[in-house]
């Protein structure tokens, strides 16, 4: 039981650990779940999944693994087989099992092997000798789970199915890719932090108190200072209304999730290249438009300006007056870019396009020059270098 | 061991019961996530009631520090007392201010400890509490005393999902995500609060409520608390169910909508949608 379930979860991108697995086994022993399969499903989910975005993956793996519990007619049993339950209940990791894992090169090597195996199985119909869990023919069968019980990759039994909770896939819409997660994003953006003391004086100013007390001939003269707060203000200008929309949505979410890292965070939109107007809500563009000049009056030079965009367009859209594809711009994008970078001395550009391709697109090169080489790829590393840059 | 189950006043799914009972049995924290208004905070009250334990509540704010949950040393008062010659000054213990974890650890009987909205605090906040929650003890440097839990409290941690929590922290918890209630569940929740409510009014009101939640542009979609408030107003005003019927979200503004839409922008959005729909319709 141990290996297949947890390994399949990990292969599916649910980062369940042995600690959590042991917690599940202990909860089984304590009788938390009773004997019903549904309860076992709820319990293992509460023990092994810690992020709602992974719930759907869990459901899929659970479904796969527990096909072995079904009767030949495809009906899911309502109760866990007693024999199987006894096995789980007896089981914590024995020294032999640990040794077995080690012999296979450790947990991670096992994972790798499993992943390959799973890939080989994709698209196949019938179980071959490499099917995971086919007792005896694969190292994964060696983990002593009950062969009549649980297995991964058992071929489909065609005729079913009574609806099972995990087959309803109710969490499907919560799953999303998380290469740039809000946590690692936030950690990256922390470099931006600038602390300042503002607000009510709530903290004891120790050097101040000592100095004043000494001057007072030793009788105490307390001095307080405001607590340190992060004072970073960020202005995001984002390219919207085309190929960029998906990136923009993600980016906006990520920055919003990291909102607590800033004192202020403001979003404005442009299309392709910044010109004389920006807007706040793309759906209601004309109602929410504002002159760029006004933006520069509203947000002082202490704001950090971050553009997000692919900077991919015709070069004339940047360098020529009237070059914009959607309106007549009196002054070129270049003029506006220069104005912005002169006003906001701390500025950076995030570009979702793979950095290796930048030099093949003329407009990116132009923008990179206008940004004085402060363009960064929209990746974790890129964010980190941007944050370092803006913190300087 | 008493088991947690839904009650007359709190509707709990079987999956929630299992998660709670696992956390209680294994004495590990239960992390509960979900949209605002899905009953996370109330859950801790219900668990305490079901187990017959007192509840200690720690409501986290953006400025809350992990240390405040353990204790704080009030050096300023001590200095001041020293200056004034107060005899209390000789015992440092007089200036140690206990936090909620301390209260929970020193309680003579087991308690439920609610750490509410943990995601509000600094990103390192959960990490800073990891060891204390794991070992259920901490050390007070000023008095050189270890405060260890007499009884491991049942720890319920809620999060509104704004931030991700560190892995090391998550591995120690059981986890439950409360989905926004479907119509059937919502009906049960409403009846748990207003057992006397007229069925036809409830039906129309739920139609309107779930219609409004379909409007994706809303900044803050109304949730359970808003629905409950609204129903209460409708009942007080003795609103006839027919008055709700025409108000499908796209055509008109439902009566007493102020209880459902708390945000000014959302109200405007709504008025505009209604206006447009009327023009198109008429
Ligand atoms: N399952 C439920 N059963 C009964 N009442 C509920 C339930 N879920 C939410 N409520 C009600 O909804 C309101 C909001 O709940 P609360 O615990 O404050 O939500 P959260 O902490 O998730 O934001 C409360 O009035 C609560 O009684
Ligand atoms: Mg709450």
TrEMBL record, chain B:
AAA+ ATPase domain segment(s)? 26-184
One Pfam family of this chain: AAA
Task: Write down the Gene3D superfamilies for this protein, in alphabetical order.
Answer: P-loop containing nucleotide triphosphate hydrolases
Molecular function, one GO term:
ATP binding
- What name is this protein filed under? ATPase AAA
For this protein's source organism, the top of the classification is:
Bacteria, Pseudomonadati, Pseudomonadota, Alphaproteobacteria, Acetobacterales
């Amino acid at each position: 039981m141990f290996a297949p379930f947890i390994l399949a979860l990990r292969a599916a991108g649910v980062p369940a650990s042995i600690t959590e697995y042991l917690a599940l086994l202990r909860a089984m022993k304590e009788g938390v779940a009773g004997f019903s399969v549904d309860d076992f499903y709820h319990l293992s989910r509460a023990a092994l999944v810690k992020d709602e975005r992974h719930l759907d993956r869990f459901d899929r793996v659970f479904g796969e693994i527990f096909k072995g519990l079904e009767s030949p007619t495809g009906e899911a049993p309502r109760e866990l087989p007693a024999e199987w339950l006894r096995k789980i209940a007896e089981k914590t990791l024995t020294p032999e099992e640990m040794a077995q894992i080690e012999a296979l090169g450790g947990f991670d090597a096992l994972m790798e092997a499993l992943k390959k195996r799973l890939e080989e199985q994709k698209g196949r119909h019938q179980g071959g000798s490499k099917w995971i869990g086919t007792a005896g023919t694969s190292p994964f069968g060696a983990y002593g789970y009950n062969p009549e019980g649980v297995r991964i990759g058992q071929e489909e039994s065609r005729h079913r199915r009574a609806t099972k909770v995990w087959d309803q896939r109710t969490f499907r819409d919560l799953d999303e890719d998380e290469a740039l997660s809000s946590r690692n994003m936030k950690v990256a953006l922390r470099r931006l932090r600038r602390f300042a003391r503002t607000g009510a004086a709530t903290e004891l100013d120790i050097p101040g108190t000592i100095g004043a007390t000494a001057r007072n001939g030793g009788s105490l003269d307390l001095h307080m200072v405001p607590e340190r707060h992060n004072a970073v203000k960020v202005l995001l200008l984002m390219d919207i209304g085309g190929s960029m929309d998906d990136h923009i949505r993600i980016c906006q979410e990520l920055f919003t999730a990291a909102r607590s890292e800033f004192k202020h965070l403001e979003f404005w939109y442009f299309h392709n290249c910044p010109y004389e107007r920006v807007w706040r809500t793309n759906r209601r563009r004309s109602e929410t438009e504002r002159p760029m000049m006004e933006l520069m009056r509203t947000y002082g030079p202490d704001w950090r300006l971050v553009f997000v965009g692919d900077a991919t367009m015709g070069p004339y859209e940047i360098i020529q007056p009237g070059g914009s594809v959607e309106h007549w711009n009196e002054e070129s994008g270049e003029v506006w870019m220069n104005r912005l970078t002169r006003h906001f001395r701390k500025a950076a550009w995030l570009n979702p396009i793979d950095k290796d391709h930048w030099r093949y697109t003329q407009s990116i090169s132009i923008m990179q020059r206008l940004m004085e080489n402060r363009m960064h790829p929209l990746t974790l590393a890129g964010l980190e270098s941007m944050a370092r840059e803006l913190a300087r | 061991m008493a088991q947690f189950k839904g009650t007359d006043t709190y509707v709990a799914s079987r999956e929630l019961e299992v998660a709670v009972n696992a956390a209680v049995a294994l004495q590990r924290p239960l992390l509960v996530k979900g949209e605002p208004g899905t009953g996370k905070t109330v859950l801790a009250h219900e668990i305490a009631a079901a187990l017959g334990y007192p509840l200690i509540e720690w409501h986290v704010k953006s400025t809350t520090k992990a240390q405040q949950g353990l204790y704080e040393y009030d050096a300023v008062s001590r200095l001041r007392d020293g200056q004034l010659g107060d005899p209390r000054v000789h015992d440092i213990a007089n200036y140690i201010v206990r936090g909620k974890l301390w209260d929970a650890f020193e309680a003579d009987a087991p308690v439920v400890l609610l750490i509410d909205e943990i995601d509000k605090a600094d990103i390192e906040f959960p990490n800073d509490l990891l060891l204390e929650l794991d070992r259920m003890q901490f050390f007070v440097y000023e008095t050189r005393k270890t405060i260890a839990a007499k009884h491991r409290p049942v720890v319920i941690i809620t999060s509104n999902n704004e931030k991700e929590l560190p892995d090391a922290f998550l591995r120690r918890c059981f986890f439950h995500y409360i989905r926004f209630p479907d119509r059937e569940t919502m009906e049960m929740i409403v009846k748990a609060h207003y057992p006397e409510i007229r069925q036809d009014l409830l039906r129309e009101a739920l139609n309107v409520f779930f219609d409004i939640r379909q409007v994706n542009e809303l900044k803050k979609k109304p949730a359970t608390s808003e629905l409950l408030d609204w129903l209460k107003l409708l009942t007080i005003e003795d609103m006839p169910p027919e008055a709700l019927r025409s108000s499908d979200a796209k055509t008109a503004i439902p009566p007493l909508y102020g209880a459902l839409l708390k945000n000014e922008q959302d109200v405007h959005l709504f008025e505009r949608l209604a206006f447009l729909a009327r023009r198109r319709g008429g």
